[in-house]
Design a protein that fits this description.
This protein has about 675 residues and is of the alpha/beta class. Helices cover about 55% and strands about 15% of the residues. The strands form three sheets. An eight-stranded mixed β-sheet has the order 8-9-10-3-11-12-14-13, with helices on both faces. A four-stranded antiparallel β-sheet has the order 2-1-4-5. Helix 8 runs antiparallel to helix 14 and helix 17 crosses helix 19. InterPro entries: AAA+_ATPase (IPR003593), ABC_transp_ATP-bind (IPR050319), ABC_transporter-like_ATP-bd (IPR003439), ABC_transporter-like_CS (IPR017871), Oligopep_ABC_C (IPR013563), P-loop_NTPase (IPR027417).
Length: about 675
């Protein structure tokens, strides 16, 4: 969860942003559910190598890249995407749980067949040991068979990890939502969070059990390689017994896994129902009523049975009350409410259940939980309340048009981003022309008249008669190009007549024309000469102060982003792996990828041994345990976040403690 600074106001929120591309019938995730906030008047750096997804994020914020999931908020209003749908996420969780259940059945079946085959081979060579010397161990202990099982278990672990991430996403969205949407009661919020957390805990225990299978299969494959070097009868027996022991443990463990999957599915069914749309709720309420109550129709059928003695019930409830209860509202008309159809008296329910026992007897806690669920199902669905809220309302066509003005982009290649058939005046003024309010204000007209009269004292004009809109627009464009260091005569020229640095200045002027709240600068200096880069960077700082601008500065060059950014996020293959204040990130990098990027920065030292100092980042080696120990985006120090699992977090905390201790000892000495 991103922590907000108390003294800074958030301008832009990116939540669970997912962008996918298709290639040859397959989907590739370019951005994998990233979350971050950008404060007002801040330069936020986004750093990563080519293909990391940084430009895709910028394009998504600007609204020129379709997104598959997630949402982007500007000034607490959605500008891209839709609000989180709890029902949709729960449907996805149910789908994945069903998939895991099916795949684990396949895994168990495959292991059972493997055991049968190995027993057959074991008995054959036990009765005729002389055949063992000629036998192919590679065929008997086919590593491919264990590789398949290993892959199946690994796939399930990945699915369970995705399920846990979905639970975390719901928790993040629901926590504190009653403060923003008063129609959502705190009790409903707590109920969703509690049920969600209960199911998540079961799934985490499920993952722990699956991890045992994964480790057992690793041990089997290691043992086969180890003992296959020396193919003796003793090693054959040792290996067989070892494999049988491990496979039987896996089979036993899979029974426990199946039970946990069943529990998780039952709990998740309630989560799904609690978030269900309005049209499904009547049916769901009826379903849960049947689980804990009995219909009057069912009970009357039993009560009118002459073979059953009801003396105990009459003594317990009372004949008058019982008759009254059974004769009231028996007409099942359309007007009849669900409460009129059911008997809720605990004594009658207990008596009925004793005559017709249910398959599973519910505990008092389960009954109480279902009663609470029924109560919340009578309320409007949480997704409906969210969609009706001002904060989460999908923007109208007019609002989308306004957002085009508020979010502008400076592109990496200044040449290809400019229309060669349009003059500089047309390029910069095109946006202004589409938003008349930018040049129709009395203040701007007065400013233009004052400027014109100062420069043309012999032919003065006034606001009421002579100030034309076209002239005001041209004056506005002139101001913009002069602010970026170009000259008035450049207005009539075309893009091909300018150098790369000048083209980028035109791009900056164009982005400033609409008076945006945030500018996305996508590698704006990577195509420029070193001498020009500093000038452009100084322009960014200048306009930040003059106009109170906010920037998302995208680059692959850490040395540049250190100079200009207030905070930096490091992205790798669609995941933000580290985020901190600029100085903090360079002083105390924690993620291996960040360390690798920093080590690759050229140093102005002829004696610097670059090949020795550079750190090679190998994600498979660094994060070998991510399959069963899922990483989280964790705050390791003040406003310093790192994507790390429990093992990595322990190492980071140990390094921080050691560094703190070392600094203290230096100060004392």
């Amino acid at each position: 969860m991103i922590k907000h600074s108390k003294d800074k106001e958030v301008l832009l929120n990116v939540r669970d942003l997912l962008v996918e591309f298709r290639s040859k019938g397959r989907k590739f995730k370019a951005v994998k559910g990233v979350n971050f906030d950008i404060y007002k008047k801040e330069i936020f750096g986004l750093v990563g190598e080519s293909g990391s997804g940084k430009t895709t994020i910028g394009r998504a914020i600007a609204g020129v890249q379709n997104i598959q999931d997630g949402s982007i908020y500007l000034d607490n209003q959605i500008v891209v995407g839709t609000p989180t749908s709890v029902y949709t996420i729960n449907k996805e969780i149910v789908k994945k749980l069903n998939y895991v259940n099916i795949k684990y059945r396949v895994t168990t079946s495959y292991i059972t067949r493997t055991i049968v085959y190995l027993k057959k081979e074991h008995n054959k060579f036990k009765s005729k040991p002389e055949l063992l010397s000629k036998a192919s161990w590679k065929k008997i202990f086919s590593t491919s068979a264990f590789s398949i099982v290993h892959q199946l278990v690994g796939d399930n672990l990945e699915f369970v990890t995705k399920i846990v991430k979905n639970f975390d996403r719901i928790n993040q969205f629901i926590t504190g939502i009653h403060e923003y949407i008063p129609d959502i009661s705190k009790d409903l919020e707590m109920s969703i969070l509690e049920k969600n957390e209960d199911t998540k805990n079961i799934v985490n225990k499920l993952k722990d059990k699956m991890s045992l299978d994964y480790f057992d299969l690793v041990e089997i494959r290691t043992k086969i390689k180890e003992l296959s070097v020396n193919k003796t009868p003793e090693n054959f027996q040792t290996l067989m017994y070892f494999i049988f022991e491990k496979l039987n443990l896996i089979i036993e463990n899979n029974d426990k896994i199946s039970r946990r999957i069943k529990i998780a599915k039952e709990l998740e069914e309630q989560n799904l129902d609690l978030s269900a749309p309005l049209q499904k709720r009547k049916h769901l309420i009826e379903k849960y009523y049947r689980m804990i109550y009995i219909t009057k129709k069912e009970f009357i059928k039993i009560y009118n049975n002459p073979e059953i003695d009801h003396t105990n019930l009459i003594n317990s409830v009372g004949n008058t009350l019982l008759t009254q209860m059974l004769t009231k509202n028996l007409d099942e008309s359309l007007d009849e409410s669900i409460d009129d159809k059911y008997i809720k008296d605990k004594r009658i329910i207990k008596y009925y259940n004793s005559l017709i026992p249910k398959t599973v007897e519910l505990t008092d806690r389960q009954i109480s939980s279902i009663q609470q669920l029924i109560e919340y199902l009578s309320l409007p669905p949480i997704d409906d309340l969210v969609n009706k809220s001002y904060l989460f309302k999908v923007p109208t066509k007019q609002q989308k048009r306004e957002n085009r003005k508020n979010i502008q982009m400076i592109f990496q290649d200044p040449g290809s981003s400019l229309n060669e058939r349009m003059s500089v005046e047309e390029v910069v003024g095109e946006g202004i022309e589409n938003f008349p309010e930018l040049y129709n204000s009395p203040e701007l007209k007065f400013e233009y008249v004052e400027w014109f009269n100062t420069n043309n004292p012999d032919s003065s004009i006034n606001i009421s008669s002579n100030a034309k809109n076209a002239q005001i627009r041209k004056y506005q464009v002139l101001k913009l190009i002069q602010s970026v260091g170009l000259l008035p005569e450049h207005l009539s020229r075309y893009p091909h007549e300018f150098s790369g640095g000048q083209k980028q200045r035109i791009g900056i002027a164009r982005s400033l024309a609409l008076k945006p709240k945030i500018i996305i600068a996508d590698e704006p200096i990577s195509a420029l000469d070193v001498s020009i880069r500093a000038q452009v960077l100084n322009l960014f700082q200048q306009f930040k102060e003059e106009y109170g601008l906010t920037y998302l500065f995208i680059t692959h060059d850490l040395s540049v982003v250190k100079f200009i950014a207030d905070r930096i996020a490091v992205i790798y293959h669609g995941d933000i792996v580290e985020m901190a204040d600029s100085e903090e990130l360079f002083t105390n990098p924690h993620h291996p990828y960040t360390k690798s990027l920093l080590s690759a920065i050229p140093q102005p030292d002829p004696d610097y041994k670059f090949n020795e100092k550079i750190i090679n980042y190998n994600p498979y080696k660094e994060h070998y345990d991510y399959i069963f120990d899922t990483p989280d985006f964790i705050e390791v120090s003040d406003n310093h976040f790192v994507l790390a699992n429990k093992r990595e977090l322990a190492l980071i905390e140990a390094n921080i403690a050691a560094k703190t201790k070392s600094e203290r000892s230096k100060r004392t000495t």
